[in-house]
Amino acid sequence: MNYHDTRLGAEWPASASRSGRETGTYTALVLQGGGALGAYQAGVYEALACEDMRPDWISGISIGAINAALIAGNPVGKRVEALRTFWQRVSSEMLYRLDEPIGFARRAFNETAALFATTVGIPGFFHPRFPVPLPEWPAEFGALSYYDTAPLRATLLELVDFDRINAGKTRLSVGAVNVRTGNFAYFDNFERLIGPEHIMASGALPPGFPPVEIDGEWYWDGGLVSNTPLQYVLDNRPPCAMEVFQIDLFSARGDLPRTMADVAQREKDIRFSSRTRQGTDMSRRLQALRAAAHRLAGRLPAELREDPDLARLLSCRPEGPVAVMHLINRPRGYETNSKDYEFSRMTVEEHWQAGKADAIYSLEHPDWVNRKLEADEIATFDLACDRPVD
């Protein structure tokens, strides 16, 4: 298939300026992995779309890569529709719904829905592999998984215009792990043509999903190394003012577990939260050091200004202020370790609405609207943690 089509029309112009947002600000959308929890990201994007905010760069891992492809691979006016079509397709109505999402009954409902997904699969996403690979039974490497993701490929080809992605109007990058070397890799449409196999590689979490072969190498889910592509975006950003909408599906912070089920969930949250705040803190320190090097250079005598070490420091100049809006899908009392593969329609809709509500609250928050950043500052805004929950 030819993924690059010159017949594509131009994208819409850059998003309108908002209070506290510099004209010409570069916008990035950073999407963490997290399976069924990815509906939260779709809700956030719907809120951003309602504010006419159009990302220049979308980066994702695992389900974040799928959401990223659905956004970048559709015209601006069709993106929410594509997300909704996907999430309607992969979610299922159970035999009953609960009026109140609390207590033992809701936990039982979620566990039943997750068991249903693992038993029969998810339409348009994956289905069980038969016969099931046995632990000591050799098989082709591409078939070493409990599920077959061929339905996902068909869904991506239906809902994502890869010609649009490869036209490069919106930057798209998705992360995966090379199985043979263990090295992390990003597939970026500014560097190569992107097809459905790159999106599937980013979400090929073993042992559930099979590895994906690309250019003679095999890849697994990027979340095995890092579940958040924020550092890649910060390390490769353009030299201008930037705002980042970082949408995490696992919360690094949480309550102490009270049951073994809580232990399993808390362990998964910590493992897949990928030390997000540590990454922004490190970037902030590097930004401050770069600014200090420039100030110091102005005070040095002329004979030292040609020093190659100084030149190297000065080449790492401050690249403009960065405002990071951190939106986190926080755990709910009725969820368990199965929450990332619990695809009931009721729960998926709840995640979608939670993401939308968190984004609206954060976009309207005075700290975000009235933000003023210094030229070399990186600031993180985690505002939705204060949002009253109905």
Polypeptide structure, described:
With 390 residues, the chain is an alpha/beta fold. The protein contains 13 helices and 11 strands. Helix 1 links the parallel strand 1 (26-31) and strand 2. Helix 1 (39-50) packs antiparallel against helix 3 (79-90), helix 1 (39-50) crosses helix 12 and helix 2 packs antiparallel against helix 3. It is globular, with a radius of gyration of 22 Å.
What keywords describe this structure?
single chain; 390 residues; alpha/beta; nine-stranded mixed β-sheet; 13 helices; 11 strands; disordered N terminus
* Mean pLDDT value: 87
The total strand number stands at 11
Q: What order do the SSEs take from the amino end to the carboxyl end, as H and E?
A: EHEHHHEEHHEEHEEHEHHHEHHE
The biggest beta sheet reads: 9 strands, mixed
Helix content: 25-40%
Strand content: 5-15%
Low-confidence stretches: 1-19
Q: What is the alpha-carbon Rg in Å?
A: 22 Å
Structural class: alpha/beta
Q: Tally the helices: what do you get?
A: 13
Molecular shape: globular
End-to-end CA span:
48 Å
Could you outline the blueprint of secondary structure elements for this entry?
Blueprint: E1 26-31, H1 39-50, E2 57-61, H2 63-72, H3 79-90, H4 103-120, E3 127-128, E4 147-148, H5 150-159, H6 162-166, E5 171-178, E6 184-188, H7 196-202, E7 212-214, E8 217-221, H8 230-235, E9 242-248, H9 260-273, H10 276-297, H11 308-315, E10 322-328, H12 345-364, H13 366-369, E11 378-381
Parallel strand pairs: 1-2, 1-9, 2-5, 9-10, 10-11
Antiparallel strand pairs: 3-4, 5-6, 5-8, 7-8
Helix pairs in contact: 1-3, 1-12, 2-3
